[in-house]
Write a structure and sequence with these properties.
The complex is a heterodimer of chains A (about 1150) and B (about 280). By secondary structure, chain A is of the alpha+beta class. Chain A is built from 35 helices and 35 strands. Helices cover about 45% and strands about 20% of the residues of chain A. In chain A, the strands form 6 sheets. Chain A has a 6-stranded mixed β-barrel. Chain B is α/β, with parallel strands linked by helices. Chain B is built from 8 helices and 13 strands. Classes of the chains: A alpha+beta (about 1150), B alpha/beta (about 280). The interface of A and B includes residues 386, 388, 390, 475 and 480 of A.
Chain lengths: ~1150, ~280
């Protein structure tokens, strides 16, 4: 056949069938466009992601820092270092890091006030010392006896400052007072102070202003190294948050111009004639100086295309700096980590997207095959005719293939533009618009689309062309019958290829489960190619299963339809039951369409929910503040806070340590971001197990709310007169009463009585409940409980040594405006060899006068009655053991021994420990060992993601606190024992900013971390990218709907024309036109309805299969909490309703086209 | 003259599920070159089956069907293509199926020539000549759907005749046509047959039309029952096994039921009902 004629025939054929082939063209364009999206995604979306990652990264994450510590800083050395860094930067990093900021900083110096107005005038002392020295020399005193020079000595609370300088220092500082000090020389004629500038905060703390002088000396160094300085200016940073300041507060430092810095950080000559301490040199030699260069990244210069070179140059830069500096200047940058994380993310995040694209492409290819099969069926007569006219199989097939080639060619030519527009458009819509600023996505790297375009073209050509192959060998009569009697069995079923595909899918699924979706072992993160095609394969397999099973379903439905007394339904039922196979393909098309939509919606919802869950999980609560004593902060009214202590522990002293959270069960349950799969629907159900009776653990003797003091009346039982006389000096036997009091916020206070118990008289020792030795920012908060009481020797000379002894206490009262209330301490237990017994108060007097030395005047009864020792009535006698010191581990004390800890553990910990609820065993938590009872299981708790721990334990904070911090410690004169304070404050609030502001202000230091759900959400840089890419999926799904409409309409039209005569017969039998239409439409509705229902379920099932993909976070590590399927019911229903509506419209339209035809015309209709 | 069609004991069994239907049961038929034969018979007699076998669309289950000296049951797919291109033309009953709707009249005629590899000018000339012959030259470039039923059928005839086949097979060629047009069509075929040496075998229900052919062959129950040559009386066919199928009307009229007495008489063979006294 002549090519031109052949082509002409093909073109005319295409034009004649343009209606049905337009659908194929759309499908082909979709397939190729989606394939082309892959390189565009790489080139554009990833580029935006990279830009977003870099733009949003903190400067600390992207800048390059080089630094060196020099013990003996000199100007020459500093300049050498400067040159090394600058040369390396110039050679390797100039395009990305065009500038450099240099700063030099010393270690701490101590401010030593001096002068006539100060406590010590070291200049005057120095001059006086010189005179003394001269005199000693004159007196020829042994040099060893000469007076020591009065070098400036820092006071105990000396202010600490650091010297700071930079080549651009004048540009960094604003002068508050005085004038900037450039390089200047100090007089060699007289001793002059060095002119320095001080930060405004230093000025505020020290009270120094311009003209004031003081001494500065290094925190550590030889005693002759110090310098007299004068404040020439008080300065403040022009930009306190500028990067050059690093983590330092610029107002808390002192400054020298770079030249001055270079000069004074090296020895400067002076002379004994003018130096008050007779030194030969002055300045701050041998001071450790840190020279630091920060190279700020010019962020727009980091581009995807040059990423490899950028990384390579960074390495070269580091290598050159290290080489030329002899290894003394290390360089640091976190951008390599950022890029590495980006590359991992591009794989991990890109994986599901590619898989989804494969899915949509698979769906579209199915449409192509489907519509081509329909076309071929319709072409049966024509093919038969051609054959009967002498067309060979090759020619018959060739015409169809030519037609497919033409469509594929047009689609391939158009698709890149479609894909480009698609990708560009995603830049305009949220969430990608947040990265692009609403501008279209800059689509780059056009050339790379070529292979994808070619592959797509081939794929679509094959998909469309393959349909004709089964028909190529059919005879004329078989071809003629195609249009009227479509095949009843697909090739898949004929050769059981569907069973093979199912088996293959199962094997793949097993393999993927074993291997994981992402390969992390080779050092480079790569995606398993199987993972990409697996969902599409699953969809395909599902389709085959549907094709096999659907006829049976339809037969059943058909049988059901024959039951009612409706002729239309009965006819529908008969038809469905009689010939169910061809409907399978229509159902499959609907299935693919609704399945894709359901998949896209469910996937997007699951993704969104997952991000929300992850943010909620990472934050733990609306606000979580982590830092020293964070848990003791309180929050504004309207918010709910709870302290949390995080530590580690294990049951039975296992070597496998679990993460331990100590919480206030009720409050924690109210505050925590909970999810029902963490162990219970309501967190109260789990955490209330820690308090079986609903009450907080009893941590001691409760003090009435109104009490302001605890008063204890007592006396140290004196030694007898005889014993006293036997020793030369009786040691001080006074004892101070101390208490551990726990307040409402679990803070353990160490409170001390105002006076000592003595052995000379009965004393009421009063403990002020409004304060303690701890430095918590606000007073104790009621309700208070006395957890422990003990006594210590108050003698600061001897420390807390107690040589034993006995005390009598007659009453322990809580005293307040409402009066005094006796406190019952019977629930407290004596520990540490303390013996508490009942006694009579008279014992003090009796002990004193139990024995007399010879010649002693025995007191009379009246004298005894008047004695301050005299007291009668019941008393509590404390017998203290002998020979204890403060190094003894346990202080003799009266303590409320806490109950056994109630412990919740996760099942893994439970399993490896062999523990079951109700078991009591020992637990090590922190550094302590407790007895605990396992009360239940908890699967996970937000924020408990410490992968270095193997499992999770949750205990009651009050109980743990009492165990951990409640034990008495020698503390009268020494430091308090360490308190395990809850380092986290979890808050439920609607005003996170206010909570953070107020809570942080109560903390002793800046918090280590502040978490909010919003900030945690924003931290997922992949979110807009991933969600944006899902938008592309939606476009695919929407196109799928259009294709489905085309397909369904085509199918219905074909089915209608196939059965035109049947309809005519029905009309001739007396069926109304409407009934005929209803009969026909009913069939299609049943098929579409079933297809849609199965499609929705299939789509959701597919998301379930995809969940392992999502389970990998940006860093390819398993994310927490586990991702749960989120089915957006309302959206799904709306989508199905919309698609259903469109499909029903298309069915009605097609049905109407036939039902309105004249009966005579229809009856005359012969197979077309 | 050589036989263009030579069918001997052709049997065709159609399988429909588990059911076997014998469409042809030992049919014998010979058609000479240039002969114009019509095939008549009741519905289901096997006319169309015979035609599709002769067209090569399906193969006989048994027996021998030789057309243009080619045994159809032994033809390969390639042989069949050559057969379609050179030897046989076929006109379907539904005239719309004979034409490609998106091609115009002349293109439809050219199509088989194109498939046969005939070059442009020669192809065009032959197509136009054929259209001229059937009176459609004026509508050479008309779309198929603008032609009337008769014109479409004439066009279909042109398409079938385009490659210059030796045999034309037509199924209900005039089924959709009025009598006058049908007669015109048959006259045309007669001319082509007698003057061009084209053998024609047409299936028809219309006895009046059939009688305008050289020979009317009646098929009943998958066998040739009778044949009537133009201008002579109807003859009963005796097949190779000596089997005869008698017209039912004649049997009823003669009172012959299930058995018959056969006598050899001077004029031939006499069939008598059983109840007639045996004179021998």
């Amino acid at each position: 056949m002549k090519i031109a004629t052949y082509l002409s025939l093909v073109v005319r054929r295409v034009w004649a069938k343009k209606g049905i082939l337009f659908g194929s063209l759309l499908g082909a364009i979709l397939v190729i466009a989606l394939l082309v999206v892959v390189p565009l995604y790489e080139a554009s979306v990833l580029a935006v992601d990279l830009k977003f990652s870099v733009d949003n990264a903190l400067d600390e994450q992207v800048d390059v820092t080089a630094f060196t510590n020099t013990n003996a800083y000199t100007a020459t050395g500093g300049e050498f270092n400067r040159t090394v860094v600058a040369d390396s930067q110039q050679r390797w990093l100039q395009p990305w890091y065009p500038t450099s900021e240099e700063r030099s900083q010393t270690r701490e110096f101590l401010v030593i006030p001096s002068g006539p107005d100060a406590f010590v005038d070291y200049i005057a002392l120095g001059e006086a010392w010189q005179e003394e020295l001269e005199k000693a020399i004159e007196d020829e005193i042994d040099p060893a006896e000469w007076p020591r020079p009065p070098y400036p000595t820092p006071p105990p609370e000396a202010t600490q400052v650091r010297f700071f300088t930079s080549p651009v220092l004048p540009e960094l500082l604003a002068i508050v007072e005085g004038a900037y000090v450039p390089n200047f020389s100090v007089s060699t004629e007289e001793f002059e102070p060095v002119q320095i500038m001080i930060g405004s905060e230093v000025s505020r703390i020290t009270g120094f202003g311009v003209g004031d002088t003081f001494f500065l000396r290094p925190f550590a160094g030889i005693e002759t190294v110090f310098e007299w300085v004068e404040v020439a200016a008080v300065v403040s940073a022009l930009e306190p948050t500028a990067n050059i300041w690093g983590i330092d507060d610029p107002d808390s430092m002192v400054y020298l111009d770079q030249a001055m810095f270079d000069k004074w950080l090296a020895p400067q000559p002076t002379s004994r004639e003018i130096d008050p301490w007779l030194r030969d040199s002055r300045g701050f030699p041998s001071t450790v100086v840190t020279q630091r260069w920060r190279l700020p990244l010019d962020k727009p210069t980091v581009e995807l295309a040059g990423l490899d070179e950028f990384q390579s140059r960074l390495n070269q830069f580091s290598a050159q700096v290290a080489r030329e500096s002899g290894g003394t200047i290390p360089t640091v940058t976190l951008i390599t980590i950022l890029i590495s994380a980006f590359e991992v993310r591009s794989v991990v995040v890109g994986g599901p997207i590619l898989a989804m694209l494969a899915l949509v492409v698979g769906g579209a290819i199915y449409f192509l095959v489907y519509s081509s099969a329909l076309t071929v069926e319709r072409e049966g007569s024509e093919m038969a005719l051609l054959k009967s006219r002498g067309a060979s199989s090759g020619q018959t097939v060739g015409i169809h293939l030519g037609q497919s080639l033409l469509i594929a060619g047009i689609a391939a030519a158009v698709s890149p533009f479609v894909a480009r527009s698609l990708v560009a458009f995603t830049g305009r819509i949220p969430p990608l618009s947040s990265l692009t600023g609403g501008e279209p996505l800059d689509v780059a790297q056009q050339r790379s689309v070529l292979p994808f375009m070619i592959i797509g073209g081939i794929l679509t050509f094959v998909a469309m062309g393959v349909a004709v192959i089964p028909f190529s060998r059919k005879g004329v009569l078989e071809l003629r019958s195609l249009a009227t009697r479509p095949g009843t069995k697909s090739v898949w079923q004929k050769y059981n290829l569907d069973l093979f595909a199912i088996a293959l899918s199962l094997v793949l699924l097993l393999q993927l489960r074993l291997r994981g979706f992402v390969n992390l072992t080779s050092g480079e993160t790569t995606l398993d190619p199987l993972a990409i095609i697996f969902p599409a394969l699953l969809l395909f397999t599902g389709a085959l299963v549907l094709l096999r099973l659907f006829p049976y379903v339809l037969k059943f439905v058909g049988w059901l339809f024959t039951k009612p007394r409706s002729m239309a339904m009965a006819l529908t039922g008969w038809h469905l039951g009689r010939n169910p196979v061809p409907y399978g393909r229509l159902a499959l098309l609907v299935w693919v369409t609704t399945g894709l939509g359901a998949f896209a919606l469910t996937y997007a919802a699951t993704l969104e929910t997952s991000y929300d869950d992850r943010a909620a999980f990472a934050a733990g609560a609306d606000v979580r503040i982590v830092g020293d004593e964070a848990g003791y902060s309180s929050v504004p009214v309207g918010s709910l806070e709870t302290p949390v202590l995080r530590t580690e522990g294990a049951p039975r002293r296992s070597t496998r340590r679990a993460e331990v959270l100590a919480v206030m069960p009720d409050e924690f349950s109210d505050v925590v971001n909970w999810r029902s799969d963490f162990g219970a629907e309501d967190p109260h159900d789990i955490f209330s197990l820690l308090r079986p009776d609903g009450n907080a653990p009893d941590v001691g003797v409760e003090i009435p709310e109104t009490a302001t003091h605890i008063e204890v009346d007592g006396i140290v039982i004196p030694v007898s007169v005889a014993a006293e006389a036997a020793v030369e000096t009786l040691p001080n036997r006074n004892h101070r009463l101390l208490m551990k009091v726990i307040d409402a916020r679990t803070r353990v206070w160490t409170m001390i009585a105002n006076v000592d118990f003595t052995d000379t008289e009965w004393t009421i020792a009063s403990v002020d409940l409004s304060t303690g030795r701890n430095d918590y920012p606000d007073p104790p908060e009621h309700p208070l409980s006395i957890h422990a009481m003990w006594v210590e020797r108050s003698d600061p000379v001897n420390g807390n040594v107690i040589n034993g002894g006995d005390l009598l206490l007659t009453s322990i009262k809580a005293v307040g405006p409402d009066g005094a209330v006796d406190l019952d301490t019977s629930e407290m237990t004596p520990l540490g060899n303390l013996t508490v017994s009942s006694a009579d108060a008279t014992e003090a007097l009796q002990a004193r006068y139990a024995a007399f030395p010879p010649g002693y005047d025995v007191p009379t009864s009246a004298e005894l009655a008047a004695s301050p020792l005299n007291r009668s009535g019941p008393a509590q006698k404390w017998s203290l053991p002998g020979q204890r010191t403060r190094v003894n581990s346990q202080v003799p004390q009266l303590r409320k021994v806490p109950d056994d800890l109630k412990v919740l553990i996760d099942r893994e910990v439970g399993a490896f420990s062999g523990l079951n609820p109700g078991d009591i065993t020992s637990y090590s938590i922190g550094s302590e060992i407790f007895t605990g009872e396992l009360v239940g299981y908890v699967e996970t708790v937000p924020t408990a993601t410490d992968r270095t721990r193997e499992g999770l334990m949750v205990v009651d904070l009050v109980a743990l606190n009492a165990w951990n911090n409640g034990s008495a410690t020698w503390s009268l004169t020494g430091p308090l024992g360490a308190i395990d304070s809850p380092g986290e404050l979890w808050v439920s609030t609607t005003d996170p900013d206010a909570v953070i502001r107020i809570a942080v202000s109560q903390m002793p230091d800046e918090p280590d971390q502040v978490w909010t759900v919003g900030a945690a959400t924003a931290a997922f840089s992949s979110r807009p990218v991933q969600v944006g890419l899902v938008a592309i999926l939606f476009v695919g799904a929407a196109t799928g709907v259009v294709l489905a409409l085309a397909g369904v309409t085509g199918y219905v039209l074909l089915a209608v024309s196939r059965r035109a005569r049947e309809m005519g017969v029905l009309r001739a039998l007396g069926f109304e036109r409407k009934s005929v239409a209803v009969t026909f439409a009913l069939e299609q509705f049943v098929v579409i309805g079933l297809g849609a229902a199965i499609g929705v379920l299939g789509g959701i099932a597919l998301v379930v299969v995809m969940l392992p993909f999502l389970q990998l976070g940006e860093t390819a590590k398993v994310i927490h909490p586990e991702i749960l399927l989120s089915v957006p019911g309302a959206q799904l229903a709306a989508y199905v309703a919309f698609v259903g509506f469109l499909l029903i419209l298309s069915v009605l339209w097609a049905t109407r086209r036939v039902s309105v035809r004249k009966m005579s015309e229809v009856l005359r209709e012969v197979d077309r | 003259m050589p036989a263009i069609i030579d069918c001997q004991n052709v049997i065709k069994i159609h399988k429909q599920g588990n059911l076997e239907v014998i469409a042809l049961q030992g049919l014998d038929l010979t058609v000479e070159q240039g002969e114009f034969v019509s095939l008549v018979g009741a519905s289901g007699a096997g006319k169309s089956t015979l035609l599709t076998i002769l067209a090569g669309f399906e193969k006989p289950s048994a027996g021998k069907a030789v057309v243009v000296e080619r045994d159809l049951s032994e033809m390969s797919s390639k042989d069949l293509t050559r057969y379609y291109r050179r030897d046989v033309g076929f006109v379907w009953q539904d005239f719309t199926r004979n034409l490609i709707p998106y091609l115009d009249a002349v293109d439809n005629v050219e199509l088989p020539l194109l498939l046969g590899g005939i070059g442009g000018k020669k192809r065009k000339n032959r197509a136009m000549a054929l259209l001229e012959a059937v009176g459609l030259r004026g509508k050479a470039h008309a779309s198929v759907h603008t032609l009337s039923g008769g014109e479409q059928q004439r066009l279909a005839l042109c398409v079938a005749l385009a490659p210059g086949p030796k045999l034309l097979l037509a199924d209900e060629l005039t089924g959709e046509l009025d009598t006058e047009t049908s007669i015109e069509m048959f006259n045309l075929l007669r001319t082509l047959s007698h003057e061009g040496g084209l053998s024609v075998l047409v299936v028809t229900h219309d006895i009046a039309i059939a009688q305008r052919t050289d020979r009317v062959v009646r098929i009943a129950d998958g066998r040739i029952a009778t044949q009537t040559r133009l201008g002579s009386s109807e003859l009963v066919t005796i097949d190779q096994r000596g089997m005869v199928q008698l017209p039912r009307g004649m049997l009823i009229e003669s009172g012959i039921t299930d058995t018959v007495r056969v006598k050899l008489v001077k004029e031939g063979i006499l069939l008598e009902p059983e109840d007639v006294a045996d004179e021998s």
